[in-house]
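forwarding from the other thread:

> can someone predict this with cobalt (II) ion?

sure thing
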Amino acid sequence: MKLKTNDPCWCGSGHKHKRCHGDRHALTYPPVTLGRVSPPRAVPDGIARPSYVTTGIVPPQTPQIQDAASLTRLRRACAVAAEVLLRTGEQVGIGVTTDDLDRVAHDVYVELGAYPSDLHYRGFPKSICTSVNGVVCHGIPDDRPLEEGDIINIDVTAYIDGMHGDTSATFHVGTPTAALAGLVDTTRDATLRGIAAIRPFEPLQRIAEAIEPFAESRGYSVVREYGGHGIGESFHGAPHVSHHVDRRDDSIVVPGMTFTVEPMLCSGRARFHQAADGWTEHADDNRPSAQFEHTVLVTDTGAEILTVTTDGRTAAGTLDTVNAARSSPRTT
Ligand code: MF3
Ligand code: CO
Ligand code: CO
């Protein structure tokens, strides 16, 4: 059920939603102004590029299904992406520009021997996407310094061993308000619930069925125009992974399939428009929006998150947290 502004807040405080996690004042932001974009960063010659960089050809969007050998390569790309995201996220802070974060990320990709998949993908000029506050996705790193109270999604895709690994997380700048923490925490939980709902030989729609009602029960809206995507040798392959329930989609998932789950949740309406740069998607009402993303593998029993480091670390959350949250009684 969609939560209404006069309903009791989902957090259990007993206050109306509009006086608690739906507080309009805490969620009113000026539009994010676009700054200056620095020149694309150089990648050493020894690092292999995807075909869309070398030939300009974006491969067709075929389903991405792995065997043992390709999965080993994909795991490596995903571990690199997880590491880049962690190390870039550590640098988020007041006064840091999104271009500073792009440099940090770029240097980690290169250190780990990977190509930043975003760089020159369909003309994208930087090595990560940085989407601040009311920017829904595809923000281009620039010279805007982060401010107290901002949120920023950092989206990392690494190409190595012929495979792309894609992951993102939303970080707070300074101390978050309860309203903003609610958006970010709910978006992470929605992503993990969507992943936890995956079952082999069952509908892909299980993901959206887990995400959309959960988001709406907390007063958030789910972006429809962008979804997850098959991933592996292709950056954006089949299937298209909707995060809102789409009754026309009757596709079934099978073991070995690899795709991303990456819902964008909006604290306002999920309506947005593209900036003149051809990438940045601004929420029409400038209300903050958050996103988390993992690359996942469909297994014989469910799904495994691939975008973790070799020792299991990630900035985007693990299934342990969602399983724990669902099996223990609510304490707040
Ligand atoms: N990483 C984004 C995704 O999750 C895609 C970014 S494409 C870029 O699919 F060109 F904007 F970088
Ligand atoms: Co991504
Ligand atoms: Co993606």
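Residues 40 and 125 are 6 Å apart (CA to CA). thats all i got for now
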